[in-house]
Amino acid sequence: MSKDVFLAIADPTRRKILGLLSANDMTVNSLAKHFPVSRPAISKHLKVLNQAGLVTEQKIGRERYYHLQPEPLIVVYDWIMTYEKFWKERLAKLKTYLDKNP
Amino acid sequence: MKRDIVIEVVYPHPPEKVWKALTDPNALAEWLMENDFEPRVGHKFQFRTEPKGGWSGIVDCEVLELDPPRRLSYSWKSEQLDTVVTFTLEPVAEGTRLRLEHTGFEGFKAILVSFILSKGWKKKILRQNLPEILAKLTT
What we know:
heterodimer, A: 64% helix, B: alpha+beta, 7-stranded antiparallel sheet, 5 helices, 7 strands, globular
């Protein structure tokens, strides 16, 4: 599941879609207005986001609205934060290596 | 907005020695990860470690820059994210100042910031010390 999240946000169009949905629930048509790509292309992106658990859809009247679910992003946040720790630890290990070897 | 990871360390060792530790596969295996690195621009290699949580433990890399003993750079692709790791070595009185820059997180960090600042972020995450989270992502 978390693999899907990284794949989902690796694409800049999908990141922009999520950004728009973070302000308001929107329909495909409203979303598509913000992009130079076709409506079906946006639908495809929404499918990927849905698969990652980042958006849900709800029918209100005749319209289908997309809603942002940000919880899966916690794994991304954790992952980015771990890198800083990772490098600090490795550079400390490098020091040990250098001190140990002539 | 802080976009990259930048860490500087001074080692009491000459640059040539530090360079060797950065470019010798056996040395790298000791302090970084198992690898098939070769000091050759264009060389594609991998770092491998135990998979942990959602992480496969595999990083796909390609040597981008090689300027001994001053600058080494390779791409670092992990979990769909293309980033770049750059080591810069500067001789100083105490030995070598090593600067590590890990860049390419902009898109991911930007999206996290926009969520934290929007209504989309739930209270339970906010309770996890919002100021600290924002500071880490935006300084």
